Amino acid sequence: MKAVVSINSGSSSIKFSLFAIGDHGDHGDFQLAAGGKIEKIGIAPALKASSVDGEILLERDWPDGTSLSHADLLENLFAWAADHPLAGREIIAIGHRVVHGGTEFAAPVLVDAALTDKLEALCPLAPLHQPHNLAAIRAIAQLQPNLPQVACFDTAFHHDKPALASRFALPRALHDQGIRRYGFHGLSYEYIARRLAEIDPVLASGRVIAAHLGNGASLCAMEAGHSIDTTMGFTALDGLMMGTRCGSLDPGVVLHLETQMGMSPAEVEELLYKKSGLLGVSGVSSDMRTLAASGVPAAEEAVALFAWRVGREAGALASSLGGLDGIVFTAGIGENDADMRSRICRRLAWLGLDLDELANAGDGPLISMPDSRVKAYVIPTDEERMIAMHTYKVVQGKSA
C-alpha cells in the first residue's frame, strides 16, 4: 500500500504523520497509520512515534545539552523506518508545511533547488517558521535524494482573497514589491472549510468565521469556503494576541522602542515574537491552561484580553463578510478550552450567537442553541491530513 508522510517542522520540534492511501486517493482514502514528534531540539532531544491505536513504535531520548540538528534527528527517524514493518508501505512522497509562499506560490509544488532558493528569500517574513521548514526539506533531500518532496503553503488559501483585503495604506510601489497582507494558517482553514461542508453544507455555503486559536492564533472570514479576509497580514505576528506574540500593534510603538528606548531591531523582534502575548501580559506563562489555573490577577487579565481581542477582530471580519452565519473554533485552545469559547461567544451575542453552555462543555460539534441565528461549531483541524492530500495529488499530477 502506498503512503505519504506529512512533516511540520518548527524551531524546536518536528511533527510527522504517515498516511496510508486507499485505491482512489480520495479524501476518505487517507488513513492515519502512525505519527509522532521530535521535540526539545537543541536542548534535550526526544523522539517518539506511535501507531494510530496508541502503540509506542519508537521512543528515544538524548541527554541535556545534546547538540543534534534537524538533519541528525531526521536521520535517526529514517534509519528506524527502514527496518520497521511500516516500511512495507511504499512511501511515495513527503509533504511539508511551509509557512510563507509569498506572491508567487498559490498552490502546493514539487520541491527542487530553485524552489528552496526562492523560499529562503522569504525567511525574513516568517523568521520563527520558514528557516526550520526549509531545514527539514534540505535534510530529507540529503537523506533520500530520490524521494519527491512537496511544499504546501500556509499562505495559499488566502491567495485569492479580494484585492482590497491584501493592501496596506502604503505607497503602491511597496505593495508591488510584496509588502501586503498575506494571511496564514491556510492549511488549517482549508481543512475546516472541507469538513464544514461535510457536516453542515448549508452553513458552509454562507458566511463563516473560522477561529484557529492556539499558541499561534488567527481568524479567517470565509464565504462559500473561500477566504475573504483574515487577521494575520504581512507576517504571522499580526492580528490576534497569541502565546508569545503581540498581534496587532500601533507601528508607532516600534518606532518608540527603537528611537526613544534604544532597542535594536533584533531586540524588538525578540520582544514582539517571543516575550509578548499571553506570556508578556501575564508574566506567568504562554499556556492558556497554566494561566487559568494560576490564580494570579495578571494571568486572568491576559486571558480576558485574549477573549476581548478575538471578539473585537471577529466583529471586524463580520463587517468584511457583510454579516455572519456561523463561527468554527479549532486548534489547541479553540478545540479544548470551553471557558474561552464561552467568553468569546458572549462577546458575539450582539451578532445573534446564542451559546448552548451544556453543549459547549460537552463533545460538540454544534455548541449553539437550536434557534441561534449564528451557529457555533467545534471542529478539530488536521493540517497533516491536508498536507498528505495535497502531496499525493501533486505527485500524481492532479489537483486536490
Task: Explain what the structure shows.
There is one protein chain. The chain has two domains: 2-153, Nucleotidyltransferase, domain 5; 201-378, 2-Layer Sandwich (Nucleotidyltransferase, domain 5). It is α/β, with parallel strands linked by helices and 400 residues long. The protein starts with a strand and ends in a 5-residue tail after the last helix. α1 crosses α3 (130-143) and α5 (186-199) crosses α15 (383-395). The strands form two sheets. The protein has an eight-stranded mixed sheet with strand order 5-4-3-2-1-6-8-7, sandwiched between helices. The protein is built from 15 helices and 13 strands. Helix content is 38%, strand content 20%. The mean pLDDT is 90.
Notable features of this structure?
single chain, 400 residues, alpha/beta, Nucleotidyltransferase, domain 5, 2 domains, 5-stranded mixed β-sheet, 13 strands, globular
Short summary of the structure?
The protein has 400 residues and is of the alpha/beta class.
SSE inventory with pairings:
Blueprint lengths: L1 E8 L4 E8 L8 E10 L6 E6 L4 E6 L8 H14 L6 E9 L10 E2 L2 H8 L9 H14 L5 E5 L18 H5 L9 H14 L1 H4 L2 E7 L3 E7 L2 E5 L20 H9 L5 H10 L2 H6 L5 H7 L2 H25 L4 E5 H6 L1 H10 L9 H5 L13 E4 L4 H13 L5
Parallel strand pairs: 1-6, 6-8, 9-12, 12-13
Antiparallel strand pairs: 1-2, 2-3, 3-4, 4-5, 7-8, 9-10, 10-11
Helix pairs in contact: 1-3, 5-15, 10-11, 11-13
